[in-house]
Design goal:
The structure is a single chain. The protein has 677 residues and is an alpha+beta fold. Strands 8-7-1-2-6-3-9-10-13-14-15-16 form a twelve-stranded mixed sheet, sandwiched between helices. Strand 9 (194-203), helix 5 and strand 10 form a beta-alpha-beta unit. It starts with a helix and ends in a 49-residue tail after the last helix.
Length: 677
């Protein structure tokens, strides 16, 4: 059979109906592969039979005894790889998704779980990665975190055991680790089929362990694709001391651990609880789970994806990690969407599969397909409308200091470049019932729960790209206070409805297919479309802090009523264009209901405007801001029927990594009702 004829038989185009392909023998397949190499192809082709692939489980020794039973823990590694290459001597790269969710909760928009036959052999691998990439000459491995599904050990929420479980698999794929054919036996098995080049991928917690594994500097990990991933577990539960979730890492461990792990892991969960005090102090537990300082060790390239309205794993995780990688010169690529906590397979499917294919081909197979010379960043400007940037943040972006001023009435201020007059103040009272939507809806009204400052209508577009900081001088009336600062685009727009159950997507009954299927593992997934809403304003960046953490060293200190404090609140990274005719606003308030827990008291806070400023990342710097805020542009008219803004979700007990499906089948985005800390 010729190469062309064999490829025509085996090729399964993305989106086409899938059947069982006719397969050439190993010799013909090897001849085809060699012929392709000789022709210097730019992409891998689906020339291997998915229905004949090797499916097996290997238990890899983590070299860590997390459950303290006197034996090092083994993690279950489910493998699927082309059978035709056995006996040929050819080795292949590996795509790996390590997850705690394969048994408890499922992966993807349809909450798929791993399944096994009566002999324990893997049948279904969640998501499309195996269906699409194995026929193209990749191996795919799905790893159960320690303490989950079929693995030994205990769940330790980003700690030593968790990262070791993933790193050990990379080592095994590179011939450095020990793998076994059974969970408890002594019969070893080697990854003779792997060339060691590994790429890790995954959404949320899965992407988080990819970040953490890359931060070990493990050899053989060539690239990671973290999607909506955590870079510091402290920042998942707290921001600058402000409590973000009513639940701690011990609750999360108890939810995802396997039934047989629960009794042996009580001591580990107690350590998690004891190491995460409610005062928001940075403890050794949190330092161990912060990957950002170890960006200097990263050898892998990074293709990051994040929703700019992700209120679960928030954009500060992406911003800190991205900036740290940039300082180390790590090769990077990024997609930033308008969605919440959503996988790109569910908001830009065809382009995502194409781009991911090219990325892995370049990073793992070494194809010179040019993706490394293409724009670094894809940014969603409006639902399903994307732009690109050669680098991100774009060149010419500069942190510019803008300042609040008093306006014509109390609580209705102005945002500009000049410093406020000495003695200028604003006052607000923390109202834990209200959120950023309520504040922004009353931006032109003096209300007691916030202080708002806005520019005049812009005469030209103004783009912000990167992270912001707001420095406040405040005087509290009580012994505790939480502060919120948000940036708002005041003007009508149609955006993704990130506050709805789908977080910006609607799931449809129709399916598209992405590779061959088997009776137990379909490559066909429900399609989606953008869930949009028309609004009068958009909150596009947020930050929170506890005043007890005003020194910024990770330690809470007593707050004295009547004493003035200076605190700098970090606002999450973003990329947003405030259009001409709209206004840019900064709002300062207390509790942001639904996004941060209230303090113990209900303080009144006085804000010294002369000592308050914001550093915002304008493309074009101060000059761009000055030009956009000069002149007398007319305000953009509001849209008939527009809502004030998107209401943020009010349940704070979310867990990272499970699907935002609106199919009615997914209930695993939330911890058990009533779970406390």
């Amino acid at each position: 059979m010729t190469v062309a004829a064999m490829t025509a038989v085996l090729l399964a185009p993305a989106g086409a109906a899938q059947g069982t392909p006719q397969v050439a023998g190993p010799a013909a397949v090897q001849d085809a592969a060699l012929a392709q190499q000789a022709a210097r192809p730019t992409e891998s082709r689906p020339v291997y039979a998915y229905d004949r692939a090797v499916r097996e489980t290997v238990w890899v020794d983590t070299r860590v005894d997390g459950d303290k039973d006197g034996k090092t823990d083994r993690v279950a590694v489910d493998v699927v790889r082309p059978r035709e290459l056995d006996g040929t001597g050819r080795r292949i790269p590996v795509i790996m998704d390590a997850s705690p969710y394969y048994a408890c909760c499922g992966r993807g928009n349809e909450s798929q779980k791993k399944t096994y036959d009566s002999a324990g052999k893997p049948v279904q691998f969640p998501l499309f990665y195996d269906n699409y990439f194995v026929p193209r000459g990749y191996g795919y491995v799905a790893v159960d975190f320690t303490g989950t599904n079929r693995s030994d050990g205990c769940v330790d929420i980003g700690g030593r055991s968790e990262i070791a479980s993933a790193k050990a698999v990379v080592d095994w794929l590179n011939g450095r680790g020990q793998g076994y054919t059974t969970r408890t036996g002594d019969s070893r098995t080697h990854a003779h089929w792997s060339n060691g080049s590994t790429g890790m991928i995954g959404k949320s917690w899965d992407g988080t362990v990819a970040n953490g594994t890359a931060a070990t500097g493990v050899k053989g990990l060539k690239t990671i694709v973290p999607i909506g991933a955590i870079s510091s577990w402290y920042d998942y539960y707290f921001q600058q001391g402000a409590d973000l979730y009513d639940g701690g890492p011990d609750d999360l461990a108890g939810y995802v651990e396997s039934k047989d792990a629960a009794p042996r892991c009580k001591a580990v969960k107690k350590q998690l609880a004891d190491g995460a005090p409610l005062n928001g102090n940075r403890t050794p537990l949190w330092e161990e789970r912060d990957f950002v300082p170890d960006a200097r060790k990263v050898r892998a390239s990074v293709f990051a994806v994040h929703g700019m309205q992700d209120l679960n794993v928030r954009m500060n995780h992406f911003g800190k990690w991205w900036d740290a990688l940039a300082k180390q010169g790590v090769d990077r690529k990024v997609w930033l969407s308008q969605t919440g906590h959503v996988d790109p397979f569910d908001f830009r499917r065809a382009e995502w599969v194409k781009t991911l294919h090219r990325w892995f081909d370049h990073e793992l197979m070494g194809y010179a397909n040019g993706i490394d010379r293409e724009p670094m960043a894809d940014i969603e400007r409006a639902p399903d409308q994307w732009t690109t940037d050669k680098v991100w943040p774009p060149r010419g972006t500069d942190s510019t200091k803008v300042r609040p001023h008093q306006g014509s009435s109390a609580g209705v201020g102005v945002l500009g470049l000049k410093r406020a007059k000495p003695g200028s103040t604003e006052t607000f009272t923390d109202d834990p019932r209200l959120d950023e939507t309520a504040w922004a809806a009353k931006i032109d009204t003096g209300t007691p729960e916030k202080a708002g400052f806005a520019t005049r209508p812009l005469s030209r577009d103004l783009r912000l790209s990167g992270s912001s900081k707001v420095t406040l001088q405040v005087t509290p009336s009580t012994t505790s206070a939480h502060l919120s600062a948000v940036l708002v685009d005041l003007g009508p727009d149609t955006i993704r409805n990130y506050g709805a159950r789908g977080e910006g997507i609607t799931t449809l009954p129709e399916r598209t297919c992405w590779g061959p299927s088997t009776p137990g593992d379909s490559s066909c997934f429900k399609e989606t479309r953008a869930d949009t809403t028309t609004v009068d304003f958009t909150v596009f960046s947020r930050g929170w802090a506890s005043l007890a953490h005003h020194r910024g060293d990770g330690r809470a200190r007593p707050v004295t009523p009547g004493k003035r404090y200076e605190i700098t609140v970090d606002l999450a990274a973003t990329d947003h264009v405030v259009p001409a005719g709209h206004r840019l606003a900064l709002i300062v308030a207390g509790t942001d209901a639904g996004l941060v827990e209230a303090p113990d008291t209900r303080p009144i806070l006085g804000v010294d405007l002369a000592g308050t400023s914001a550093k915002l990342p304008f493309v074009g710097g101060e000059r761009a801001f000055a030009r956009a805020t000069s002149g007398h542009a007319a305000a953009a008219p509001l849209s008939p029927g527009a809502r004030d803004g998107v209401q943020v979700p009010q349940d704070l007990s979310r867990m990272p990594g499970t699907a935002p499906a609106d199919t009615g089948t997914d209930r695993t985005r939330f911890l058990l009702p009533g779970a406390g800390r």
